[in-house]
Specification:
The chain is α/β, with parallel strands linked by helices. The protein folds into 2 domains: about 210 residues, P-loop containing nucleotide triphosphate hydrolases (Rossmann fold); about 80 residues, Alpha-Beta Plaits (2-Layer Sandwich). It starts with a strand and ends with a helix. It binds adenosine-5'-triphosphate. Adenosine-5'-triphosphate binds next to strand 2 and helix 1.
Length: about 300
């Protein structure tokens, strides 16, 4: 299937600072694609390039297999920073202005997008009376005008409280259910793991990995064990065959195996036969957080 977006060797410098160093990946249709990376890794620069706000020094990108054109641009709604809504105007009046400027959609659209972001009941309230979460949902409503196929968000939950974050998370999931492709930069690993189907992990302008979240995470089995005597257990497990590395974290010992090769019964029998009784034995899925720090730590 034709990717929604393909990036090919995108490079960008600001004077001496190389913000992007030959980044290539593809965003599949109907994915929720998270761009993750520590501060300064080039996420915002990348989003600015794909939205034609910045020009790359080298490399190219294509939306729907085409180089950028006003027609393809109409298929993309974006939210890079909170738009300047008028504080004394209502949501409806603000969206009327946004619509007049952007030329996207018609008047009926405004009720439709307010419904999606669940602001219908408050659509006549002044913007200044909105909570931060409501302001952000209104900004997303503005991005939805004209019913674009693709939505590009930079840190959509930035500055929100846990309730606001959960609301945006639900909204993104709802947009995904409606078949939209969503590309979002974030530094909230937990958020990305909860909402994204795909992820690209960046560090200092370089792409470290990209793909389906499950695939990015599922390259190892982690077996967690513990016993009353962690030192003896660690010493014993050091001679267990087949693991790639072993880690001790307090009383917990983690054995890392190539994916699909961990055998809990064998670990259990091995320990038991050597006189150690385990009080915990389980296979753990790697969290995106673990993977992220593994990849981005020097
Ligand atoms: P953050 O999570 O902090 O927003 P980011 O991953 O979005 O970071 P960018 O904002 O794209 O990263 O920045 C990438 C690099 O380029 C950083 O070193 C940053 O300091 C630098 N940079 C970004 N914009 C400019 C600019 N206008 N002029 C000079 N340097 C810039």
């Amino acid at each position: 299937m034709q990717p929604v977006l393909s990036l090919n060797g995108i490079t960008k410098s600001y004077g001496q600072i190389q913000a992007l160093k030959g980044v290539s990946y593809e965003v599949p249709e109907a994915s929720v694609f998270g761009i993750l990376g520590p501060n300064g890794s080039g996420k915002t620069t990348m989003l600015s390039i794909i939205l034609d706000i910045l020009k790359p020094d080298a490399g190219s990108f294509a939306w729907f297999g085409q180089p950028g054109s006003p027609d393809t641009r109409k298929q993309i709604g974006s939210l890079l920073e909170t738009p300047n809504f008028y504080h004394y105007l209502s949501a409806v009046d603000n969206l009327n202005i946004t619509q007049a400027i952007s030329g996207r959609g018609d008047a009926a659209e405004i009720d439709r997008v307010l419904e999606i972001v669940k602001l219908t009941e408050r659509k006549r309230s002044r913007f200044s009376a909105y909570s931060l979460g409501m302001k952000q949902r209104l900004a997303i409503a503005a991005a939805l005008l004209g019913d674009p196929q693709v939505l590009v968000f930079d840190e959509p939950t930035n500055g929100l409280d846990p309730v606001g974050i959960a609301e945006i998370r639900e909204l993104i999931k709802e947009l995904a259910r409606r078949g939209k492709t969503i590309i979002m930069a974030s530094h909230l690993l937990d958020e990305v793991e909860k909402v994204c189907t795909h992820v690209a992990i960046m560090k200092r302008g370089t792409l470290l990995t990209a793909g389906q979240v499950d695939e990015v995470l599922a390259n190892e089995d982690i077996v967690e064990v513990s016993s009353n005597d962690p030192h003896a257990l660690l010493a014993l497990l050091s001679s267990f065959p087949g693991y790639t590395h072993i880690k001790q974290d307090g009383k917990l010992i983690q054995l890392f195996f190539p994916v699909g090769t961990a055998r809990l019964e064998e670990v259990n029998r091995f320990c038991f036969e050597k006189g150690i009784i385990l009080n915990l034995l389980l296979v753990k899925k790697k969290s995106l957080e673990t993977k992220f720090f593994e990849l981005t730590n020097d």
